[in-house]
Write a structure and sequence with these properties.
By secondary structure, the chain is an alpha+beta fold. It is built from three helices and six strands, in the order βααβββββα. 23% of the residues lie in helices and 38% in strands. GO terms for molecular function: fatty acyl-CoA hydrolase activity.
Length: 140
């Protein structure tokens, strides 16, 4: 497994709910931002995926909320791919305040969709290896 990739995000006031907590849907946006940032870090652009006729899909997401986040907090959002045999992979993420407090854990099951066939590709690792300038960023 690769070392987790991390991106820092500042919690903005308009992302909070009426109690002043980060809105639950924004946790998913932060996780998605970190995943796309990791792809770019490893040398895979969205255009590269489209050129190959594939696109990433999320099949399942679990969020475990640990501590609240408020406007002005800064968080580090980690991201690591966990490969398994077959068509799907897991992405494990942590959202952690800069003081080290774990705010949330996000686990997603994903795959690569063949955009013509509308089916998951048999081995997504092949595509990641072929497209990445640094496959190690994805644990390959």
């Amino acid at each position: 497994m690769a070392e987790p990739f991390t991106v820092r995000i500042g919690v903005r006031g308009y992302e909070t709910d009426t109690q002043g907590h980060l809105n639950q849907s924004v946790y998913l946006q932060y996780a998605e931002h970190a995943r796309w940032s990791l792809l770019q870090h490893g040398g895979i652009r969205q255009a590269d995926l489209l050129e190959k006729g594939v696109g990433p899909v999320t099949l399942e997401t679990t969020v475990r909320y640990r501590r609240e986040l408020r406007a002005g907090d800064e968080v580090d959002v980690s991201c690591v791919f966990v490969w398994q045999e077959g068509k799907v992979f897991r992405v494990e993420q942590s959202i952690t305040r800069t003081d080290g407090t774990l705010a949330a854990e996000v686990t997603a099951v994903g795959g690569l969709l063949d955009l013509k066939e509308r089916k998951l590709v048999a081995d997504p690792r092949e595509y990641f290896r072929a497209l990445a300038s640094d496959p190690r960023a994805f644990g390959l």
